[in-house]
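I am writing to request your help with a piece of structural work I have in hand. Here, with my thanks, is the record as I have it:
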Amino acid sequence: MALKYKRVLLKLSGESLMGSHGYGIDPEMLSHYAKQIKSLSDLGVEISIVIGGGNIFRGLSAEKSGIERVQGDYMGMLATVINGMALQSAIEHQGLYTRLISAIEMRQIAEPYIRRRAIRHLEKKRILIFSAGTGNPFFTTDSAAALRAIEINAEVILKGTRVDGIYTADPEKDATAVKFDKVTFQEVISKGLNVMDMTAFTMCQENNIPIIVFDIAKPNNLTDIVQGAEIGTLVQ
């Protein structure tokens, strides 16, 4: 079957790595992600990943503990590197070649981000894991995902979440919430829907990068999406 998307950026939240735990990394979730990514790679898709760090440390919550915002944001960036290393190990366990790339230089464990080199890795079918956000405070990993997707010419951002798309309200809290199958960038703004933070969202809108929000926990969702199945919610 022909691929609808040949180069994708997969955005994963750090929280989704917790699984049933309240903190840290659940080995079962890590293995689940790695197997999903392997299935995607087997189709010939060029894959890059941005992962958050909320399962370890959230920069935004740092101020409550007396940590300065900028310092807290850098701590959050380091948390994404830890998640990136864990994901790298799990993906390589599946027999794939990966490159962990950090926006903050730490040569012993990750490559620095160089755009042309990153694109070359993708062309060679290596899995790219972008960590440390954008390398700047005040920017979320959503913003990092949007930025990297634009830079590497990704065709779509696949945002894996715990729910199966975008709803009129949080479906975990409101039973009357209605799911959108497709929605425009303008509708997301006018309806105040929570997809990504506004900086990331505006970047996607200005550079015409579609976003698909879907349930990452369900097996085969990733492979079905790149083959053209209408799963989750498409923002374009």
Residues 7-235 form a domain with the Carbamate kinase fold (CATH 3.40.1160.10).
